[in-house]
Amino acid sequence: MRAMEPAAAIFAGLGFQLTPLGRHSLGSINHLMMTSGAYLELVGVPQEGKQRQEVLESPSGLSGLVFATGDADREADRLRAAGLEPSEPVAFSRPVEVDGETPEARFRTVRVPGRLFPAGRVYVCEHLTPELVWREEWLSHPNGFCRIDRIEVGSTAPDEDAARYAVAAGVAAEGRRVPLDDFAIDVVPDDRARFRSLGLRFETLAVIREKALALPGAEWSDSADGVALLEIPKFGLRIECRAA
C-alpha cells in the first residue's frame, strides 16, 4: 500500500484495530492488524527520506506473503538447498511505542526472487523481539476479526506454483493447496499471476457487515453459503469474510 493514510482510514473504518504507524530502518512504513498467530500488514513508503525499493515497485493491493521462521540463517540454507535462490538474511528494525517508551522491534528477513513467485513478494521473517509485536492490546478488534483463513493465488501454472509455495513454507502441498499452521494457500488457474483474494474469519459477520455497508469505498455482498465478499476497489482488494 503506497497510499498509507487512506488505506489505514478504510481498515480502521471497517473496525480493525491498527497498531501505531511503524517506521522501518529499511525505508518502509506499516500498520499491523494482529491475531494470536498470522497477521495482516499494511505496508508502504514514507513521503520523504529513504524508501524501500521493493515496496515502491509492488502493485497496490495484496502484494506480499511472509512466512515465519525461528532462524533466518538456517532458513536461508534450507531454501538454497531447495533451489529457491534466497537472499542473505537482512536485518532491520522499527521503534515501537510501549508504555511510554520506544524500544526497537527487530527482524531478519530472507527474500526469494520475484521471478520464482510472480504473484507477489515472498519472504521469510525471523522475529527477534516477538513480545513487541504480539501484544495483548492489539489482539482485539472491534469488528471481531480473529484469524486469517486463506489466501488465493492466481497462477498460469498452478501445480508447479503450489509445489514452489510449499517448498518456501517448508510443508507438503495437498494438490494445489498449501496448508500452514494458521491458514492455507490455494493456488488456482488464472490468466496471470496474482494474489487474487484473502479469506478472513470473524467472531460474527454482523459488525463487519454493518461497517462495510456504511463506509464509502467499501462494497459488501452477502451470499447464501455464509461467505460474504468485501471489496475495496480503490486498492483492488477482494476479501472473503466467514464467521469463525
UniProtKB/TrEMBL annotation:
**Residue stretches making up the Glyoxalase-like domain:** 3-166
Pfam families to which the protein is assigned, alphabetical: Glyoxalase_3
Question: Which source organism?
Answer: Chelatococcus sambhunathii
Top-rank taxon, per record: Bacteria
The record's listing under Gene3D superfamilies reads:
2,3-Dihydroxybiphenyl 1,2-Dioxygenase, domain 1
Q: What is this protein called?
A: VOC family protein
Q: Which InterPro entries match?
A: Glyas_Bleomycin-R_OHBP_Dase, Glyoxalase-like_dom
